[in-house]
Amino acid sequence: MSNPTTSSPAALGAPSGSRLFGSLKKRLSMFVPSGRSTVIGVPFLWLTVFFALPFVLVLKISFADLRLGIPPYTDLVTVKDGMVHFAMQLSHYAFLLQDDLYVATYISSLKMAAVSTFFCLLIGYPIAYYIARSEPTKRNLLMMGVMLPFWTSFLIRVYAWIGILKDDGLLNHTLMAIGMIHSPLRLYHTDIGVYIGMVYSYLPFMVMPLYAHLVKMDLTLLEAAYDLGCKPWTAFTRITLPLSKNGIIAGSLLVFIPAVGEYVIPELLGGADTLMIGRVMWDEFFNDMDWPMASAVTVAMVLLLLVPMAVFQYYQVKELEGAK
């Protein structure tokens, strides 16, 4: 007669311990974000802390009124005699639309940003095309050459252009030495100097998205076009250019948006007549100490820049729906 089998305490506790560990792991997973949530959440948190919250604060100040004191603006909500009072001012936005100087400044900023974006595209597209068609072993070296200016301070790079563009600077000295000009060209403290500085500073922002699209293009499409008798220019306009459209739009936005609010380049390379909204914001904030007016200028500029971004997003969604 066999003895009944007895289980050890360890064997009896093993399933219970496994279930306990599984339950604990499941509960922890509810509080610990997954890898996908982390990838999405970190940039979202960054934008919330360093963009959304400061923008809400600027938006609040734009509806306040100017006062002498610290801070130099009134409160929107006050409590007096047990009553809550709201004091929201829209006069700053109305003044922006009525004052010719502010309107001219916005138009000038948009014009200079658009012209700078055009020349960045005109110069950057051939550069990106050449890098994308180069041998794979050379591409990283060429892209490093494009990124090299970012290793130097932005302010130092702009200051370097002062020594190049001045009347007795390197450019005029070289042109006069080779006999191309007989008197110095007036480039420093002019709009031309601002255009040169902006195109130089923002050119990498145009090259990088263009290169990212051109390097992934299927070259067999061009070979098929050549086999069918297409000339190089026709193949470029009908195949290469349409396929790089998203890169052109992305690069243009990366250049245009920061160029509209540029302050350093117009301040250092431009003249007194160079109107840019970045300079107006600086003057209103720090010289005139009119924070409500400066905030209204800032909010209006942000809303103005949302228009091209919304148009780009609309066509992107429309294109994705068409691809499905």
Describe the biggest sheet?
2 strands, antiparallel
Low-confidence stretches: 5-14
Structure summary, number of beta strands: 2
Distance between the termini: 74 Å
Give a nutshell description of this structure.
This protein is mostly helical.
What does the model show?
The protein has 324 residues and is mainly alpha-helical. It has 2 domains: 13-86, no CATH class; 99-289, Orthogonal Bundle (MetI-like fold). Helix content is 72%, strand content 2%. It has 14 helices and 2 strands, in the order ααββαααααααααααα. The chain has helices spanning 9-31, 35-62, 91-98, 100-132, 136-147, 154-165, 170-177, 191-214, 220-227, 232-243, 245-260, 264-269, 277-287, 291-323; strands at 77-80, 83-86. A two-stranded antiparallel ribbon has the order 1-2. Strand 1 (77-80) and strand 2 form a beta hairpin. It is globular and about 85 Å long. 22% of the residues are buried. Mean pLDDT is 86; it is low at 5-14.
